[in-house]
Amino acid sequence: MDKLRVELKRSRRRTVSLEMDDRGTLTIRAPHNLKISAIDKIVKGHQRWIQKKLKEVEWRQMLFRPKQFSAGEKFLYLGKEYPLFLVDRSKPVLGFNGKRFVVSSAHLHSAKAIFEKWYERQGLIYLTERASELSRLTGLRFKNFRVSSARARWGSCSAKGTLSLSWRLMMAPPQIADYVIIHELAHTKEKNHSRAFWEVVGRFVPDYRERRLWLKKNGFLLNL
Length: 224
Prior knowledge:
4-stranded mixed sheet
């Protein structure tokens, strides 16, 4: 694998977190006022974890095959696979009828971007509704909602109560997306991953360990 790619993102957070995305980029999230020397020390102290994650990335990259957008190729939507059909007409550029995806051959050169936009639009509808419904059922309130294209994390919840979810969750089974939503909603009550935090998650998703494990094992497939 190439030299480790590192991104440092500072915010008003109080602790440092390390995340490895499916491309092998290490994202370091740190407080605004924390010195680089302190961050370097933390990263060096996690070298074994970093090497383990890099090996996992290499393994996933061996198994994952980027989409070719060819006729008959399968695409995930809410946990199920649907075949792709190519048509000569120019509109709609991308359609879905519940049984198959249909793409205009004239737009194959930008098919990846077209699919990403489609998933993002679906996320704005589906994920917004699920977040609102689960917020109502759990009593865990958020203030704003957005769909992101994040690759390093499935979701996040800002200190100001903004819930962000990756459009890639539109490829996952509904129960997996629900787990991520509950996970982020729980952060409105418990800011870190303490025992109290997981107690909140477990109250509403008793099998959260299984769903979390599913994401760890299969999350790399939720991509184009």
